[in-house]
């Protein structure tokens, strides 16, 4: 079986079937290397053809707050004083890099969700 670029849905489906047959391959073997290459090709094809929209950072924060039963005061160590937390949650103030790092570390929100280009575009001027 030759490895070739994935250019169509048929190529993609073939690559997925090939990956399935190679899932038990040992690393550093011919089949293991083939699996690594196929997975890389599939990931690239999926990124290009099935992009995932990252959630709005404020919605992601609110979702985590709701899921964990957190209050505004619980965000103070990550964002700052209570009034600053309210400003961020009400989109009156953007997230700083320091806030993003602390929210990522403290709440486990993916940093990409907190700093995405789309999120910057949605932020009020």
From TrEMBL:
Organism encoding this protein: Natronocella acetinitrilica
Taxonomic lineage from the root: Bacteria, Pseudomonadati, Pseudomonadota, Gammaproteobacteria, Chromatiales
Gene3D superfamilies reported for this sequence: lambda repressor-like DNA-binding domains (1.10.260.40)
InterPro entries cross-referenced by the UniProt entry: Antitox_HigA (IPR039060), Lambda_DNA-bd_dom_sf (IPR010982)
Protein name per UniProt: HTH-type transcriptional regulator/antitoxin HigA
One GO BP: regulation of DNA-templated transcription
Superkingdom of the organism of origin: Bacteria
A GO MF term: core promoter sequence-specific DNA binding
PANTHER family: ANTITOXIN HIGA
